[in-house]
Amino acid sequence: MKYMMLIYGAEDAITQTEREACYGESAQLAQRLQAKGQYIAANPLHSVTTATSVRVRDGKRLVTDGPFAETREQLGGYFLIDAGDLDEALAVAEQIPMAKKGTIEVRPIVEITGLPEK
What we know:
- This protein is of the alpha+beta class.
- About 25% of the residues lie in helices and about 35% in strands.
- It starts with a strand and ends in a 10-residue tail after the last strand.
């Protein structure tokens, strides 16, 4: 089963030096997952200040600068993996470096037919 791991944390929780180290640790984790056949994708996101939210109401597009909701922690990146079960996915989630400073939300992916394959 595929699991999306959404990485949340306060953007000011780590310094730029710590962020670069986090990227390096995340790349190493991705390499280990790749070797085990579990890696699908992973990427950090740019700052929440670059976010744009889109909603459609009454057939009209509404565009707002910033994230959808003001929160203490922002979505900072993701890992998409293939794991045998939730316990295996949780074991991977605890290895994501930002788990030490933020929150990793683990959710199974709903696989629907008709989507293009990568």
